[in-house]
Amino acid sequence: MAGRVIVITSGKGGVGKTTTSANIGSALAKSGHSVVLIDTDTGLRNLDLLLGLENRIVYTLVDVVEERCKLKQALVKDKKNPNLCMIAAAQTRDKSSVNAEQLKKITDKLKKDYDFVIVDCPAGIEQGFQTAIAGATEAIVVTTPEVSAVRDADRIIGLLEAAEGIESYKLLINRVRPDMIKSDDMMSIEDVENILSCQKIGIIPEDTGIITSTNKGEPIVYNEKALAGKAYINVARRIVGEDVPFLDIDEPKNLIGKFKKFLSGLTRGKE
Ligand code: ADP
Ligand code: MG
Questions:
Q1: First CA to last CA across the chain, in angstroms?
Q2: Taking CA atoms, which of 27, 194, 249, 260 is between 20 and 30 Å from 84?
Q3: What percent of the chain has pLDDT above 70?
Q4: pTM for the whole thing?
């Protein structure tokens, strides 16, 4: 059976596409699926950095397209998981160095050998987007609960609706801060869902652990204590069809709240 080709896209830059690609890819590989990640963000590659593979890149996507190497030679094996590998983005300034037809040829070949082909898309709605979605039948739209990101996600959803090959798309809301939602400084999950009217596949909290994990070149799914890591593992489980409830990302704060109440109860008791 052919593998699934999923594009991770957003419209706005900096909302967490690459973080999402690295973590979903690692989580799926951890649970035994074979995965290849493709970085299509020409000139701005960083998927390799997030996976700690930057020193292992010999060939990139453009080398495959321009036949300077075989497809197999451009596959860089992950250090942590033998089920995972990646193809790095070309480091040229020419954003049109890989076109839609060329990428589709590559994903068509890869899906014969891998359970999942995950394509990390560049920001914007231009040619880079059209190239990234070319071989995909599924999309994950990443947004943050900010007006500008949601507006761009809305645009992207319109384009995905119109794209011939895309059969389904789901929403991943990243960098969620329950404290800010409570104080009305951030849109709520429901608001974002209603505006985009798109089924969600993940809610990822803002987590400083993601910065540390990026610096270490180790996706946060390897950190069992991190809430964002758990949230990404749940996304991977939903991708394979499991019915996983959404994490209560408010939980730690609730616990602190309960603890404070308990303490204030104790002090009152003394009075
Ligand atoms: P994109 O690929 O959409 O441009 P990235 O995945 O590169 O976005 O993320 C942009 C920045 O946001 C990075 O510095 C990343 O570490 C940070 N980031 C992403 N998601 C989170 C999160 N849930 N919590 C904290 N920082 C995050
Ligand atoms: Mg990126």
A1: 71
A2: 249
A3: 92
A4: 0.92
